Amino acid sequence: MDFGISGKRALVLASSRGLGLGIAKALAAEGAHVLLCGRSGETLAENCRVINAEGKGKADWVWADLGEEDAVTNLVKAVHDKLGGLDILVNNTGGPTPGTSEDMSAEKLESFFQTMVLRVITLTNAFLPAMKAQGFGRILTVASSGVIEPIANLALSNTLRGALVGWNKTLATEVAGFGITANMILPGRIHTDRIDELDGANAKRQGKSLEEVRSASIKTIPAGRLGTVEEFGAVGAFLCSGPAAYVTGSMIRVDGGAARSL
Question: What local confidence, expressed as pLDDT, does residue 156 receive?
């Protein structure tokens, strides 16, 4: 299938590693010009070197920290300078610290709301006028399967990512007539450093070994294994493609069948 995004310009947030990098690589493999961003210039530069060596799409990078007040302004300028405009925006943020509902202090809520919700919405709004004018846009927001089946000990993530669900559905309705889609992609247990971190935290909390916690979690997945970053990235790239023009306002699960909700 031709994804129809060769030459399209894409910004992928938090793409120095993990799920963001997986989507960035998949977009570049389809011929897109991808702008990676994150907080490790050395890692981003190496990722771009690897992507550019493939000779399909093209990759550039920019240092960015969504925790900084001028992050949106800096990213908009970087897109203008390095890409000359934007066709595809992949909203992706790091996850908050594990914990229960009682652990959600006002300070934590405010801090993570800024990076996980406010900056995502503000950045998206900054690119919408140009997307409307060109009659094409793809907005993909990476969330978590916790928005449909809350995950134990991830109360902060369940809460803040849940806020993006209502925003995305509203946005999708508002921009569909302009050739713009807005979807969410929900990772289940995809093997990344973040999963290793969470499993380690659960192992410590339960007084078990990492291997015991990992084995127990895999038993809850019908597919019988963790997903790969490459599998996740491929689904993300499709949702940003031309053939996916009639898919909008949706939440697409990539979880091996783990979520039990309808």
Answer: 95
One-letter amino acid identity for 148?
Answer: I
Residue 203 CA to residue 11 CA, distance in Å, equals 35
Look at the block and give the residue holding tokens 């369940």: 158
Which residue has 């127990």 as its token pair? 216
Q: What pTM value is reported for the model?
A: 0.94
Res. 262 pLDDT band, cuts 50 70 90: confident
Indicate the range of 81-85, 192-196, 211-215, 231-235 predicted with least confidence. 192-196
Q: Who contacts 181 (Cβ-Cβ below 8 Å, separation ≥6)?
A: 137, 138, 139, 172, 239, 244, 245, 247, 248
Looking up tokens 């799409």, which residue turns up?
A: 57
81 Cβ neighbours under 8 A, 6+ residues apart: none
Share of the chain above pLDDT 90, in %: 86
Check if the beta carbon of residue 125 is closer than 8 Å to that of residue 139: no
For the chain, list the domains and their CATH numbers: 9-189+233-253 (3.40.50.720), 191-226 (no CATH)
3-state per-residue secondary structure call for 25-78: HHHHHCCCEEEEEECCHHHHHHHHHHHHHHCCCEEEEEECCCCCCCHHHHHHHH
Q: Which of 156, 169, 149, 117 lies closest to 260 in space, CA to CA?
A: 149
